[in-house]
Write a structure and sequence with these properties.
By secondary structure, this protein is α/β, with parallel strands linked by helices. It has a single domain, classed as SGNH hydrolase (Rossmann fold). The strands form three sheets. The chain has a five-stranded parallel β-sheet with strand order 2-1-5-6-7, sandwiched between helices. A hairpin with a 6-residue loop joins strand 3 and strand 4. It is globular and about 60 Å long. The chain starts with 21 loop residues before the first helix and ends in a 14-residue tail after the last helix. About 9% of the residues have low confidence.
Length: 327
């Protein structure tokens, strides 16, 4: 029986949750590294930053998400880069994540990936969804303020759970190994709690999210080909990096702001409408949510991203100090 993998840090990534490597590896956006074929379902946290969304402003060349970081620095393959018709856009062939997606939008993603698994193109599937189902700017407030409650809230919980389970089932039937993350709970953020200050009302949202995640974790307990990653424990390690409890965390010897938003890579969050994670936090995310569970659950040997490597990817170290390949 497969125990759900639980990451070791808690809270800060719930809402977050390029060409700099050309001079270190000679890769461009369309290059494939190789042997471990990975497909992705999800939302804007996984939809390529260097494609239609073009995140990062003046720092776009060093603004990458976890998919792009892994593709460019590790022996993994998210498929060839290209332009595809709706509901897809520009990006890697095996990355079906789409900005704005909710759990209800997983079906076409799952069916497309299932075809790729059946064809032998994809071996592992990562599912990272749910932020938009309890989004801080909209749907979270519906539950918090009681606009969605009772029977309607029960239906929401059951439907999100069913949608994620159905997506898992479609790719599992074709033989894929699956890593699925829990639905993030933005109510864990101290900054978020200032916007939604009533603890009892926040708890009503957390209870709904917990029910979904408990169901996904239970499914993983009974299927050794599914690994569940608990998003509720995602901030402990990040918060342990805080510089004397300040508004910064330490990555290597670099202070990274965890409160202010900016496209400058020395900040955890980008200066966009949702505060998406910057390159540094996506490097940490790649390690904790994906590399570690893939290695521990399925016997892979993908090297972790070191702090120094993450800083190099983000353009926060001099070129001369950056290694040309992972150790």
């Amino acid at each position: 029986m497969n125990k759900p993998y639980t990451s070791t840090f808690r809270g800060t990534l719930a809402v977050l949750l390029g060409t700099i490597l050309c001079w270190t590896t000679g890769l461009t956006a369309g290059d494939n590294l190789g042997s471990i074929a990975i497909g992705v379902m999800g939302d804007s946290n996984s939809d390529e930053y260097r494609a239609d969304d073009n995140r990062g402003g003046a720092f776009s060349e060093v603004t990458l998400n976890w998919v792009e970081i892994m593709q460019r620095t590790r022996d993994v393959d998210f498929g060839p880069w290209g332009n595809r018709r709706e509901p897809r856009r520009t990006g890697y062939a095996y990355n079906w994540a789409r900005s704005g997606a909710r759990a209800a939008d997983l079906d076409p993603q799952a069916r497309g990936l299932a075809r790729q698994v059946r064809a032998g193109d994809v071996d592992y599937v990562l599912i990272h969804i749910g932020t938009n189902d309890f989004h801080p700017n909209s749907s979270y407030g519906d539950v918090y303020h009681g606009r969605v409650s009772g029977t309607e809230l029960e239906q929401k919980i059951l439907q999100i759970t069913s949608d994620i389970r159905s997506a898992i089932s479609l790719v599992r039937r074709e033989g894929a190994n699956v890593v699925v993350t829990g639905v993030p709970d933005p109510g864990l953020y101290p900054e978020f709690q200032q916007i939604y200050p009533d603890a009892q009302q926040r708890q009503s949202v957390s209870n709904a999210i917990d029910r979904i995640n408990d169901s996904l974790a239970a499914d993983a307990e009974h299927d050794p080909r599914i690994t569940y990653v608990d998003m509720d424990v995602i901030a402990d390690e990040i918060m342990a990096r805080a510089d004397d409890g300040s508004s910064y965390i330490l990555v290597g010897n670099q202070r990274i702001s965890r409160t202010a938003r900016s496209n400058d890579p020395s900040h955890l969050q980008l200066d966009d409408n949702a505060g998406h994670g910057g390159t540094v936090v996506n490097g940490l995310l790649a390690n904790t949510l994906f590399i570690t569970p893939l290695n521990e659950s399925f016997g892979l040997d993908i090297p972790q991203l070191s702090d120094e490597e993450i800083l190099c990817i983000a353009g926060l170290k001099e070129e001369s100090a950056c290694a040309t390949s992972p150790e």
